[in-house]
């Protein structure tokens, strides 16, 4: 499965433990590194934009990487343009990243914006890359409830990884200590958002109540594991982009996402 | 004819022995250098051999007497034989002495032979079955050859027939006993053993009074993480220190360790005796095909091998030892306590685990998750650290951060997060308050002691936790630390020292015994004391007993509340592990049965209703055994039950308002 000519870059960020908020390797990014290691072994390039002296970056090296490349940036700089620039030049076929960062903005927009800036396809929920051949990759995309969808994407592409991807291997102290962190000076682009916006603590997202009127344990079990059956949804096929967008817009308004 | 042949035979054998010795020394020197006081060790060696070692052998009376007769007779006979037959000092007195020595050795050898007639499974067979015959041959041949010198028989007695027979006997005898000793025969244990005792990696074990208890030096040795060139643990046999290799080489394959090992008994793929033999194979190069003892359960002999320069554990295919063998160990130290050669199995196992964890990131099963949790949340289960004191929310415990000094620092341990152990902790606090002890806790400043991380081989996380704890402790003044957790107790007492934290630490049972001695507690009789049937037994935690030599205090406390302990067959220094130490429940290597079930079976044979414990880990493991089974109670709970709380608030007569008043406080 590992292709000698394949070049893979995994983008990593500094994570934060959900209980103690201590800096750590980010869970999803670590899975993206794991996937990269599966694909190309230690030829994998791991890239971070930010502070190269952050100790917790070494946890990625502990997964058995000889080096980690850092585009040095101060806090509050915009990572998007530097990453896009770097990837443009980098002769890479597959870029892997976590779905959402655990620190900073954590909007989960980075993969989308990168894909837009580079004009590359994006596969979200990437679970596995099965093969890479003749400019195309055959990949598995994770859907809810353990379902998988097989896709064929044009290279180069960006894949974002969530918790459906294989778990990251243990990070070991020896390689973490030995691994090299290489720096690259890049032009610092201020993130304008930080000038006008302020951070506030997140509120837990409201969950739709699932009313289960089951009488027996077997019923409850069935209800808990049953596939959510969409109510009132509709499948649009062979409609014009205009009509499709309108339908989506309508749903978003109904759901109160857009007001 | 014999007079010319014997010296030639003797000196050839000796010369070969010297050659073999040099070769053996070269094998040991493949190991890494370490600091050993060579001269002091050599001077202390005779005492270590004759007194300390004998003390351990003495646990098996039959064998100790046999060993004294055989080994004593042999040493004397060897020296005299060289004088009499080698140098031809045909003195009648020397002759008689040699007769006596060989006779003594012969009798000893008869008993060795008797044990070998129907050897227990723990003993190795193969060349070891030949040894008694060689001993008999050596002693008998020299006895007969010496008879003329002692003047009992005429010089030319027997003629050439006897001379020929004796020559064969002597050749056999000296081959086994002189050069077999240094060329890897069964007698190697005497030569390597003597030097191993002299250059032992834990000389602290040999102190007066001589009992060489393994509890005298039980802390693991720290890795120097500051030195980036030093290997992180042991990958290849040559990464052991030279005196560790020497230690492995001194094993007599007596199998006492095997008989005591809980993992072996549970059918997990570990046998401490085979592990030590595998290290010898690794040092000398070869396969285990010539090992004649019990295998690792479930792993056939003859498939593993290696050499000093190749990895011990291979991730593709087989090497010297499989990783699961190393991860089966509960670090209970039963093997170390039992080993007559004072070999340090646990050090070796943890050394190899260190490599697997620190270099390979290959801690099995829940290992990686636990280590990540320890790094991120300071507790192995990943609980939110701010909940560490929830168990005592209503107890109004004095905090070190507010008091700054106290007589006793109560180290709570990670049991704080466990609902079962919270009962023990609350019981102990009740006793502390009743005895009016001036104590305080660290509260949220406390972190995991690092015990589990260290046993799992993660020295880096251990040292990080330890350094932070030492930093916290250094901010406060206290006379001693008391804890209900023998693992924290051991680490604080024996392992923080190397990192700069030296404290007086008490296990709660010792502290309770002290309070009782000082009559600071008013205790009633425990209801169990009044029963005729049932009763109570006590399970010794490994980290309290074998690691720290505390067997008395818990029994004393139980006695003070009127309970006579019905001892199990395996109690005290021979107590069987509960299966909870060394991260074994985390690495969870499957066996045929579970260790806690075996321990519960031990407990049940005493017919008790209650088993007293002194460790949160033992509590968890033993309570995990399916009912019906005896109840598991911590010593602190048993004491708190019979506490007579008088004079708390004498002005207030009834119980209810008094509780209210306390809550307001
Ligand atoms: S420490 Fe205990 S479990 Fe480990 S090898 Fe020795 S006896 Fe067996
Ligand atoms: S390691 Fe010790 S107890 Fe075990 S077989 Fe060897 S000498 Fe005997």
Any key phrases for this structure?
heterodimer; A: 259 residues; alpha/beta; Rossmann fold; seven-stranded parallel sheet; three-stranded antiparallel sheet; 8 helices; 12 strands; 24% strand; globular; B: 665 residues; mainly alpha; four-stranded parallel sheet; three-stranded parallel sheet; 27 helices; disordered C terminus; binds iron/sulfur cluster; electron transport (chain A); ETF_a/b_N (chain A); Electron transfer flavoprotein alpha/beta-subunit N-terminal domain-containing protein (chain A)
Q: How many domains make up the 3D coordinates of chain A? A: 2
Mean of all residue-level pLDDT scores of chain B: 92
Question: How would you characterize the largest beta sheet of chain A?
Answer: 7 strands, parallel
- Widest sheet of chain B: strand order? 4-3-5-6
**What is the residue-mean pLDDT of chain A, rounded to a whole number?**
89
Of all protein chain pairs, which has the greatest interface, and how many residues does each chain bring to it? A-B, 17 and 25 residues
Low-pLDDT runs of 5+ residues of chain A are none
Q: What hetero molecules are in the model?
A: iron/sulfur cluster
- Assembly type of the shown chains? heterodimer
For the record, give the distance between the C-alpha atoms at the N and C termini of chain A, rounded to a whole number.
48 Å
Biggest pleated sheet of chain B: 4 strands, parallel
End-to-end CA span of chain B? 100 Å
CATH H level, superfamily name of the largest domain in chain A: HUPs
* Spatial strand arrangement across the major sheet of chain A: 7-11-6-1-4-5-12
What's the CATH topology name of the largest domain in chain A?
Rossmann fold
Percentage of helical residues of chain A? 25-40%
SSE series of chain A = EEEHEHEHEHEEEEEHEHHH
Domain 4Fe-4S ferredoxin-type (chain B): 242-271, 317-348
Pfam families (chain B): CCG, DUF3483, Fer4_9
Protein name (chain B): Dimethylglycine catabolism protein DgcB
Transmembrane segments (chain B): 6-22, 68-87, 93-113, 134-153, 159-179
């Amino acid at each position: 499965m590992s292709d000698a000519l394949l070049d893979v870059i995994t983008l990593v960020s500094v994570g934060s433990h959900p209980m103690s908020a201590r800096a750590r390797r980010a869970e999803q990014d670590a899975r993206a590194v794991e996937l990269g290691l599966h694909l190309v072994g230690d030829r994998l390039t791991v890239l971070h934009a930010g502070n190269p002296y952050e100790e917790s970056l070494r946890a990625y090296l502990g997964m058995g990487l000889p080096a980690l490349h850092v585009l040095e940036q101060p806090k509050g700089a915009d990572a998007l343009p530097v990453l896009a620039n770097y990837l443009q030049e980098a002769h890479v076929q597959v870029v892997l990243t976590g779905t959402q960062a655990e620190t900073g903005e954590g909007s989960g927009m980075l993969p989308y914006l990168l894909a837009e800036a580079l004009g590359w396809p994006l596969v979200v929920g990437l679970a596995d890359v099965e093969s890479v051949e003749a400019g195309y990759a055959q990949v598995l995309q994770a859907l809810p409830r353990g379902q998988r969808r097989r896709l064929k994407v044009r290279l180069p592409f960006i894949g974002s990884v969530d918790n459906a991807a294989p778990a990251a291997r243990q990070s070991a102290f020896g390689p973490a200590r030995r691994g090299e962190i290489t720096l690259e000076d890049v032009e610092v682009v201020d993130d304008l958002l930080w000038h006008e916006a302020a951070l506030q603590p997140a509120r837990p997202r409201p969950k739709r109540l699932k009313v289960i009127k089951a009488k027996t344990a077997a019923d409850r079990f069935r209800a808990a594991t049953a596939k959510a059956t969409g109510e009132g949804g509709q499948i649009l096929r062979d409609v014009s982009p205009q009509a499709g967008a309108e339908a989506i817009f309508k749903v978003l308004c109904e759901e109160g996402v857009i007001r | 004819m014999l007079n010319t042949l014997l010296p030639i035979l003797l000196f050839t054998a000796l010369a070969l022995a010297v050659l073999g010795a040099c070769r053996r020394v070269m094998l040991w020197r493949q190991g890494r250098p370490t600091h050993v006081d060579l001269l002091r060790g050599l001077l202390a060696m005779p005492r270590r051999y004759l007194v300390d070692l004998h003390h351990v052998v003495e646990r098996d009376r039959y064998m100790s007497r046999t060993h004294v007769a055989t080994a004593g007779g042999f040493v004397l006979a060897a020296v005299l034989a060289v004088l009499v037959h080698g140098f031809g000092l045909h003195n009648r007195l020397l002759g008689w002495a040699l007769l006596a020595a060989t006779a003594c050795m012969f009798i000893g050898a008869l008993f060795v032979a008797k044990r070998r007639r129907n050897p227990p499974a723990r003993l190795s067979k193969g060349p070891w079955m030949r040894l008694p015959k060689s001993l008999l041959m050596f002693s008998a041949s020299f006895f007969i050859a010496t008879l003329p010198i002692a003047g009992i028989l005429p010089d030319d007695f027997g003629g050439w027939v006897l001379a020929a027979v004796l020559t064969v006997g002597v050749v056999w005898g000296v081959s086994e006993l002189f050069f077999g000793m240094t060329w890897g025969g069964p007698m190697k244990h005497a030569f390597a053993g003597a030097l191993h005792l002299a250059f032992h990696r834990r000389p602290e074990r040999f102190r007066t009074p001589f009992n060489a208890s393994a509890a005298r030096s039980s802390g693991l040795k720290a890795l120097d993480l500051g030195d980036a060139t030093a290997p992180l643990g042991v990958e290849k046999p040559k990464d052991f220190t030279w005196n560790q290799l020497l230690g492995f080489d001194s094993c007599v394959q007596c199998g006492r360790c095997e008989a005591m090992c809980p993992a072996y008994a549970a059918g997990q793929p570990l046998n401490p005796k085979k592990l030590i033999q595998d290290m010898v194979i690794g040092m000398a190069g070869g396969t285990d095909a010539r090992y004649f003892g019990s295998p690792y359960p479930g792993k056939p002999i003859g498939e593993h091998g290696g050499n000093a320069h190749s990895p011990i554990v291979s991730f593709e295919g087989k090497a010297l030892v499989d990783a699961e063998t190393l991860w089966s160990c509960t670090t209970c130290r039963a093997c170390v306590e039992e080993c007559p050669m004072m070999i340090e199995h646990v050090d070796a196992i943890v050394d190899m685990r260190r490599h697997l964890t620190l270099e390979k990131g290959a801690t099995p099963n829940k290992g990686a998750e636990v280590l990540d949790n320890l790094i991120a949340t300071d507790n192995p289960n990943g609980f939110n650290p701010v909940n560490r004191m929830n168990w005592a929310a209503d107890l109004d415990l004095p905090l070190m951060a507010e008091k700054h000094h106290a007589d006793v620092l109560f180290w709570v341990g990670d049991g704080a997060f466990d609902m079962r152990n919270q009962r023990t902790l609350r019981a102990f606090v009740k006793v502390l308050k009743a005895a009016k002890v001036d104590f305080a806790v660290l509260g949220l400043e406390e972190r995991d002691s690092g015990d589990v991380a260290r046993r799992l081989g993660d020295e880096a996380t251990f040292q990080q936790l330890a350094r932070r704890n030492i930093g916290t402790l250094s901010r406060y003044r206290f006379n001693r630390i008391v804890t209900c957790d023998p693992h924290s107790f051991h680490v604080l007492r024996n392992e923080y020292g190397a990192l700069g934290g030296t404290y007086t630490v008490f296990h709660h049972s010792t502290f309770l015994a002290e309070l009782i001695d000082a009559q600071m507690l008013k205790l009633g009789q425990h209801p169990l004391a009044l029963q005729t049937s049932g009763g109570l037994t006590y399970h010794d935690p490994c980290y309290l007993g074998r690691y720290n030599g505390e067997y008395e205090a818990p029994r004393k406390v139980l006695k003070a509340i009127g309970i006579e302990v019905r001892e199990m067959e395996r109690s005290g220094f021979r107590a069987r592990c509960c299966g909870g130490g060394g991260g074994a429940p985390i690495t969870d290597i499957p066996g045929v049965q579970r260790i806690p079930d075996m321990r519960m079976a031990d407990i049940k044979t005493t017919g008790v209703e209650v088993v007293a414990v002194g460790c949160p880990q033992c509590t968890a493991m033993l309570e995990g055994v399916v009912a019906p089974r005896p109840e598991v109670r911590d010593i602190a709970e048993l004491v708190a039950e019979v506490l007579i709380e008088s004079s708390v608030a004498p002005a207030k007569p009834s119980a209810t308002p008094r509780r209210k008043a306390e809550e307001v406080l």
